[in-house]
Amino acid sequence: MMLQTRERFDVDSPFKRPSRPRGRRHRVAVIGAGLSGLICARTLADLDCEVTVFEKSRGVGGRMSTRRSESDLQFDHGAQYFTVRDERFRRHVDTWIEEGLVAPWEGRFVKLNRGYLEESNGETTRFVGVPGMTAVCRHLATDLDVRFGTTMAPPRHDGTAWIVEDAAGTSQGRYDWFVTSAPAPQSAYLLASVPHLEVKARRVSMSGCWSVMVAFKSPLDAGFDGAFVGVSPLSWIARNSSKPGRGEDFETWVLHASPEWSESAIEADHEEVVKELLDALWQVTGLQPVEPKHAAAHRWRHALPAEPLGDRFLFDPGLRVGACGDWCNGPRVEGAFLSGLALAGRLVCTMAAETPHARNCSTFASPGP
Ligand SMILES: Cc1cc2nc3c(=O)[nH]c(=O)nc-3n(C[C@H](O)[C@H](O)[C@H](O)COP(=O)(O)OP(=O)(O)OC[C@H]3O[C@@H](n4cnc5c(N)ncnc54)[C@H](O)[C@@H]3O)c2cc1C
Q1: Whether residue 315 has its Cβ less than 6 Å from ligand 1
Q2: Residues annotated as region Disordered (predicted)?
Q3: What whole-number distance in Å separates Cα of residue 322 and Cα of residue 312?
């Protein structure tokens, strides 16, 4: 058994079998502190791996984060809510509900199209983080070693370990395993020394999304809390302050531009985007324009994958490298979660096959890619 594993490493990999001393914990570098990276890191850390997470921004959450303004207003400027289809995800969501991290958003949801309004509540339960979308990621990151403000360069292997450096060339250590959870184009870049995985990540294109965050002193008489918008620069409008646990003094709204509009204006000036999307808001709702107390725009350059890979994650056991994220098998919060969880399962199974260190392989009945 041992011999077979050794042979596989030598055949599949240009690298020699890594020489991790017996008994030492597996060291894993995870790039990205969004949901997929954090559930992967959390799972590995709970199974006694030594995990370090590198995140280029100043906080956790990635596209599921909450933005706080200088005047202390908060906006879910990326993911708006999430739904639950998969039983494995449901089990986690149930515990988050019990812990008060997540609650259903019981608003009125509609479709707005060419001046027509159609109800869109249906049977779907829409969950949100409380008091902001970041709550779940913040919870998962508890006690993890997360290095914020650290933009990573592509790791390289020296034959025994992954050499991990940030974009400034500062060493961030040596690791047995390397995982990227960045959006597909950024993961492709980070996988530069693993060409067969890089090429797969590069195949997934991701569209941009402009998000505008506005606050009004008096409530707008819109008559809904969330609206899917057609035939407009906008694709989504949400009364952010109608989500549970927000408790704002002002009424806050988040406006998302459609992928087409966002792509055509991807290099536009932030102020110009605010103006155009506010104009679109008044136009699609028929409301009288009101001057907001606060308005800001955020550009998501890699918001949503056009067509995910169709694999739950990418993995090379020989090179000890993996990639996860919503771009692998599902362009949503749930897809990101399941991707990171499944990759952690596969890593642990591979570690277990190598050493008796991690024995919980059967916990993760992951279908894998
Ligand atoms: C505008 C918008 C609206 C959305 N609405 C919904 C919705 O309503 N419902 C839903 O289910 N989903 C929605 N989504 C999708 C959802 O947000 C994502 O599917 C999910 O959050 C992706 O998680 P992830 O971990 O795969 O990636 P991310 O959250 O993107 O995490 C990747 C992390 O990697 C970091 N990173 C990248 N490169 C580097 C580097 N070189 N070094 C260090 N760190 C790096 C990034 O900063 C980021 O924090 C929306 C997304 C957007 C953008």
Answers
A1: no
A2: 1-23
A3: 11
Structure tokens at 238: 């949400």
Helix 333-354 × helix 87-98 angle, to 10° = 110
Q: Of all helices (H) and strands (E), which one includes residue 137?
A: helix 135-140
Judge whether residue 216 has pLDDT over 60. yes
336 lines ligand 1 (CB under 6 A): yes
**Per-residue pLDDT tens digits for 41-50:** 999 999 999 9
Q: How far is the CA of 6 from the centre of ligand 1 (A)?
A: 37
CA dihedral 210, 216, 219, 222 (to 10 degrees): -30
Torsion angle defined by CA atoms of residues 281, 285, 291 and 294, in that order, rounded to the nearest 10 degrees:
-50
179 lines ligand 1 (CB under 6 A): no
Mutate to test the pocket of ligand 1, among 31, 64, 120 (most ligand atoms within 8 A of CB): 64
Taking the CA of residue 166 as reference, the ligand 1 atom at the shortest distance is 42
Please name each of the domains of the chain with its CATH number: 2-60+141-203+308-363 (3.50.50.60), 66-133+206-305 (3.90.660.10)
Q: Whose CA is nearest to atom 7 of ligand 1?
A: 79
